[in-house]
Structure formats: C-alpha cells, structure tokens
Amino acid sequence: AVAHLDSDGDATDNGYEYLVVTIPTDSNSVFRIDGIANPEGSDIAFAARFTSTRARVYTLDQAADMTKPWTSVSGDTPGNDSDLDLVHTNAVDRGLYRVKVTLPGTP
After folding, report:
1. What φ, ψ does residue 17 adopt, rounded to 5°?
2. What is the rounded distance in angstroms from the CA atom of residue 67 to the CA atom of residue 2?
3. What would the 3-class secondary structure string for the chain be?
4. Cα–Cα distance between 72 and 35 in angstroms, integer?
5. Quick check: helix, strand or coil at residue 103?
6. pTM of the predicted structure, to 2 decimals
7. Are 89 and 42 within 8 A, CB to CB?
8. Helical residues (DSSP H) of the chain, grouped into ranges
C-alpha cells in the first residue's frame, strides 16, 4: 500500500496504519484507546489503556492546551502484545493527552 494514501477510507493514511500496526485496507482496523481512567482517591491521576504490540514503543504525552507543546509524561514503554496502561501520576485538572507510537530505536 502506498504510504500517503488512505486505502480503506478511514481518514488515516497507510503509513500511519503501518506504524500503529493496523490493516490499511480494513476501515474497522484502527488504533484506539480502550479505556481512560482518572480514579478518585487513587495515586493514578490519568491512565490510558490500549492493545499494544511488541514491535512498537508507546509514550503518553500531555499538553496544557492546543497551543502548548507536547511533553512525555510516561517515558517510552515497549509493547507487550496485550493491553498496556500508560499512567500519568501528576496530572493537572485540565489538559490534552495523546499516545505516541514509534518503532523501536527511533525518537
């Protein structure tokens, strides 16, 4: 599949689908966060859960708003071919989060 095309019409190009290990010809195959937690009375201030793969490294990033830079709050975490939780223990009241997916050995 050509990297800059969107073969399945799901608004995600084939290059990104390769990176997050989804099938670029299946619009139902998407990288998704399966759970978000902010448990009251817990030391965990924010956690994101998703299915990971050993072939990728995941990082939880946070930004105060859309105009502020992203900052890693979890460090690089290798996938485990299972559900993975990335946790931010010092979360603020408001902010944005994203899960960054990279190949092992790349910044």
Report:
1. -60, -35
2. 32
3. CCCCCCCCCCCCCHHHHHHCCCCCCCCCCCCCCCEEECCCCCCCCEEEEEECCCCCEEEEEEECCCCCCCEECCCCEECCCCEEEEEECCCCCCCEEEEEEECCCCC
4. 19
5. coil
6. 0.82
7. no
8. 14-19
Which class for 60: exposed (0-12), middle (13-18), buried (19 or more C-beta within 10 A)? Answer: buried
Alpha carbon 81 to its chain centroid, in Å, reads 14
The string over 24-57, giving b where at least 16 C-beta atoms fall within 10 Å of a residue's C-beta and e elsewhere, is beeeeeebeeeeeeeeeeeeebbbbbbebeeebb
Question: Quick one: three-class SS letters along 67-81?
Answer: CCCCEECCCCEECCC
Report the C-alpha gap between 16 and 6 in whole angstroms.
Answer: 10
Digit-coded pLDDT (tens) for 64-96: 999 999 999 999 999 999 999 998 888 777 789
Nearest-5° Cα angle at 77, 76 to 79: 140
Tokens representing residue 26 in the block: 């299946």
